[in-house]
Amino acid sequence: MKFYTKITLWENQRRLRILFEFRNIVNTYFDNSRIEWASGEQIEDVDAQRARVKINRTMSEVYSVILHSRMNPSVRWTPPPIVGGYVQDVDLILDLFHIHRLQISPKNVLDFIDRVIGTYENNYVRAIVRTFNPLFYIGLILDWIASLPFVLINKIGFNSAKVESSIIGKLLKGFLYVVTATASILTILHLLNYLESVKQFIEHIFVSK
Description:
Elements: H1 9-31, E1 33-35, E2 42-44, H2 46-67, E3 74-77, E4 88-91, H3 106-122, H4 124-131, H5 134-156, H6 160-165, H7 167-191, H8 195-208
Antiparallel strand pairs: 1-2, 3-4
């Protein structure tokens, strides 16, 4: 899955639909469940149980959509002094069914989803521009070619994300971008019968020096 700044209009709208549907299901779940005072457990009625099933089935894709908006679903939770405990990071999405134990309000989850929706909505106009911009698709091809070595690394069994984020990985990816872009430009010039003229121009510059 690509980051929100590298998707088409249709993918932007598809992700927004996923987020809106997920928000509605989450809202349904919390509207039809309550915290039992004695045990502190979440009591779910039939509608909440159905919503829970839908949440679990869609959570994986929703979580990916959220991460690719560059929004962090984790919050730093500090236990009340009277209770004690340690400070920890709580994932508002993956830990959705456990936040009541930490006394985190469901509104925090809904607010976070709204912020992710806002990120995609604010990128709507840019998504339109990208969709009808030929250079956008050339960039996607360059991205794909530059990612091939890391796909191979992943197939071998290594952590491709870790390698790609390393200094060597970034240098390799940058090198592949330059090589691929140069090859693409030369091919286009050749197809347009401008390659020879460009070569002569470059030779003229160096000879004149």
